[in-house]
């Protein structure tokens, strides 16, 4: 094993880790930008909770739960009940032999830990402006601590989806749809925000309070995807990492273009938030097969994801679901699209692969829906999941946190 | 070829690519921060369009147009009319032999693609708050898709400027002045914003709506310049890349100091925006010779760029040109300064080099002025380039996009 | 020496440099977010001054002052009086032999230069909203240009603290406490802001004007700490760098959890700013021993730092000291805690090490207090260090800079 190469690989994985961590800043900006200023602190509190609690939970048992086979004799799902609370690096974990010279055991843990928190963050945006903070925190603990690593183990931990040949390079299904299914269940259980649907049943726009923050959020997320997809190569392999960055960026660009074009055709409006969600849709869409696609295929996948975003947002609205940031369209619908696209484009294209992808989507979907329903229904019964009408109208910041995000401006 | 070294080189170039991509966030923040809140969405829309359309155009033909000689038998400028729409990696493109072991073909494309979009972004700031969005989008397509790669081919593609010995390390001329000349032509054709020059002919300050965003923008741009200049080494050569980061950062610091000092002497005011533009001036100024200068020379070049900024902004004002973000002073004038400085300082200093640099500046300037005039005059005749008076007064956000960037604050 | 490995090491150090530079954006966001909008430009001006002046001063003599022994025959503290103004790279500075193959001389300078500016930035937050800008600028010159490198030389330059076995991996004492002691002295000399303590002597909250910016600031600082601690390994050693990132991130997460929990127990409030300061406390706390601790120890150190933050903020308040951003609790108290923790946890744990750590803390503290007192008292006598009552009430932005940070919102 070449020490220089091992060092280079490990550097790339650490940078990817840093970039995925930075995505939490992107998600925070996006979510607060697309919602009202009176709920800003609440959303930020949720995001900070997700990343801190997420890392600690992943350390406590999530990592061992998700990669049960990595260590000889590891107990996998039961690991957390054993005396080895916390991570216990394998004896050869720090050597260039670990993970075929890709990176150290520490890098492995931290990179995967940054991923883990993402799933709950996706939910955070969808339930914004009306969810009870305590209920959301408990939900996060279960979803990041159990549901995400269990699903992850099925594929990335070497489980049955992996054995079937299901392909999901960086998590269109394993990360984005896992978050997206919970978002869907949560918005259905929570109901729409007050004023979202008029007495006539028509959807009304509730404009976000800071479009610059939403825009910065998407640009930061795009940047973070350099690490999310680029790091999922699990080494610094020059050809593969750089191809992945190209397909990722082209899909993002094409997604934005697709969404803004279709939106203009349908509504005659140059809609910036649709442009932004189209970029995110393209990014989510390419994630399952970023290492398999040619640039032309990446552009097609991204562009179609952009079209899907416009239609998906309209569909969610039609179903009387209130998803303030478009998380269901972006992460769930484009996550499914990206996963299926692996069976349509690239070197794995073919009917057999398509069906495997479809089965994977359905199985993960069923599991996530059931888990979300159980967790959220239990929380609804025990402590309630929605704030009072008064609190929702006056804002969660004052009621749950006793603070105002912008006191110099809103108190005037 | 050493695989470890190739991998390391490629990592550095991918990071540089990510940092140059992040500059678009910096430009966005700077431009909206220095303009009024009523035009914020419009500016952000332009910036998102530039990066998405820019990447796709560069993929479609810009890259082949700019680097015609990279592939044996490549048709260069006519490449885009051939059946190989989109990029077609050379057979050895993914091997360590490509680009002397610097990086893969994919990395090459993406790094250069991120650069390409920068030129149009420079124009975006100058024409802010009054340009028609449709006209600007068409202009972007021509300028990023044709003008930038053609000029780039003259030097970086191995064309006649390169043969002459013209030196432009990372693009004081090829990127910043190319954008700056178009900015100059555009502000002249557009005319000043309503209220910029009083009936007495005196210039009036139109304060930007968010100085924190402008400041963050400049800090992000400085960070991005680590990749812009550091990546222009085209390998991770330890001595050269780290020297470039040192000269870049010292020039930025000296530029800020120069501008804030001269501004204080002239106007007795500790002007933050001048401080920020001085930093940018220093960065643009060092860009042409960041790899040739000693730290002392970098400080001198940067400091003088800072002085030039203060005088340049005053000059632009005196000429009754309205450039809301100071793009002409920063990118055009300091771009010229930096290019000429290569003939004054560093190992290439000398009369012969100076004249070569001057010829390069003039030829590029003439070409960019002519191209900009043709494109913008045609657009003016066909669809108009300036919004109506009513739209300008009420804001482009409501008229062109039907949205408000800060509805919770401005609607109160 | 392996060129591939040297290149990889140098890349990691350059990235760490970039990340530490980005921390200045984080500090800027945090400081303006936690203060009032009328003083925003003033704070940003100070931050931009610190990074630009800091780099130039460190170039002029700080680096040579801090690392006197690096070059054979270097005069150290008297270097700046010699004709070699500015840095003069050693003959073998650019070779793989420099710094045991870790990085080039240029990288060394720039990484350390980015660190240097941090100490003054810590003070900036504490004195916000009432310090005279001119006095602060002079203070910065002395503190970054002299005090910081002298203390640094005692340990990192191979001085007596190093000889004693004092351990401070990345600067809990050498950076954070050095800044924190000056912050303490400065807030004591300045006195509280008008309105901070009522006639009844009770402390009143003066809410910051943008909690989203404060939150983004902390997330960016956490990201920057990947470079601050990760780069302090001074090579890309895979095991050590990745361990450091794990301990750093776990301590940050645990710090946030500790602070938010204790705060909730004491005050029954889910306080976002305490969550954020807890994260920072955890980061400062792990900094002295990030390379020595196991993940479990990092979590304990971080969690205790979080508790310390809540108690520290209350203590500062009780002492009638007005520290708008909590800099004393975060950087001074947690800096001391982190330094002492090296004698309690990790492979160096033991009474002897604990006493060495304690002596180091006390000696550095005494020196910094004396220096700060001398500099600030002299400035108070000569030019005054606090703005007039009128200026403080109306805001420093208008009085010192003639500008408004948010004219579209605050002028309405």
TrEMBL record, chains A, B, C:
Q: GO molecular function of the protein, one example?
A: ammonium channel activity
Pinpoint the Ammonium transporter AmtB-like domain residues: 11-406
UniProt keywords (A-Z) are: Ammonia transport, Membrane, Transmembrane, Transmembrane helix, Transport
Protein family (similarity comment): Belongs to the ammonia transporter channel (TC 1.A.11.2) family.
Transmembrane region(s) = 12-32, 44-61, 109-128, 135-157, 169-190, 211-228, 240-267, 274-292, 298-316, 328-346, 358-379
User: How is this protein positioned relative to the membrane?
Assistant: Multi-pass membrane protein
**Chief place where the protein resides:** membrane
- Tell me which Gene Ontology terms the entry assigns under biological process: ammonium homeostasis
Protein name as annotated: Ammonium transporter
Q: Which organism is it from?
A: Pricia antarctica
> Where is this chain's protein located in or outside the cell?
Cell membrane; Membrane
Looking up PANTHER family in the UniProt record yields: AMMONIUM TRANSPORTER, AMMONIUM TRANSPORTER SLL0108-RELATED
Query: Per the record, GO CC terms?
Result: plasma membrane
């Amino acid at each position: 094993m070449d020490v220089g190469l091992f060092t280079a690989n490990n550097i790339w994985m650490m940078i990817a880790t840093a970039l995925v961590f930075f995505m939490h800043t992107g998600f925070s900006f996006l979510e607060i930008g697309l919602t009202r200023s009176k709920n800003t602190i609440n959303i930020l509190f949720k995001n900070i909770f997700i990343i801190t609690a997420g890392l600690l939970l992943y350390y406590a048992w999530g990592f061992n739960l998700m990669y049960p086979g990595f260590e000889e004799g590891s107990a996998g799902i039961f690991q957390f009940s054993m005396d080895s609370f916390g991570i216990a690096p394998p004896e050869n974990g720090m050597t260039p032999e670990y993970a075929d010279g890709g990176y150290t055991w520490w890098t492995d843990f931290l990179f995967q830990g940054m991923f883990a928190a993402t799933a709950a963050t996706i939910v955070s945006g969808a339930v914004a402006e009306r969810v009870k903070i305590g209920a959301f925190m408990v939900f996060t603990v279960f979803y990041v601590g159990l549901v995400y690593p269990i699903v992850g183990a099925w594929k990335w931990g070497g489980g049955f989806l992996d054995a079937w040949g299901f392909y999901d390079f960086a998590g269109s299904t394993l990360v984005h749809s896992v978050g997206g299914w919970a978002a869907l269940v949560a918005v259905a259980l929570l109901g729409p925000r007050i004023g979202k649907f008029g007495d006539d049943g028509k959807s009304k726009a509730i404009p976000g309070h800071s479009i610059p923050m939403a825009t910065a959020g998407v640009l930061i997320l795009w940047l973070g995807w350099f690490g999310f997809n680029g790091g999922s190569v699990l080494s610094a392999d020059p050809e593969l990492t750089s191809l992945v960055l190209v397909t990722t960026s082209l899909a993002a660009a094409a997604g934005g273009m697709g969404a803004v074009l279709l939106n203009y055709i349908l509504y005659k409006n140059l809609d910036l938030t649709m442009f932004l969600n189209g970029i995110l849709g393209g990014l989510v869409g390419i994630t399952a097969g970023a290492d398999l696609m040619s640039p032309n295929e990446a552009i097609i996948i991204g562009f179609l994801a952009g079209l899907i975003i416009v239609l998906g947002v309209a569909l969610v609205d039609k179903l009387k679901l209130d998803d303030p940031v478009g998380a269901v369209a972006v992460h769930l619908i484009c996550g499914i699209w990206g996963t299926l696209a692996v069976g349509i484009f690239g070197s794995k294209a073919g009917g057999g692969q398509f069906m495997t992808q479809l089965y994977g989507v359905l199985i993960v979907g069923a599991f996530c829906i059931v888990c979300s329903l159980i967790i959220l229904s239990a929380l609804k019964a025990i402590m309630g999941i929605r704030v009072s009408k008064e609190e929702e109208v006056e804002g969660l910041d004052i009621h749950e946190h006793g603070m105002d995000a912008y006191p110099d401006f809103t108190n005037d």
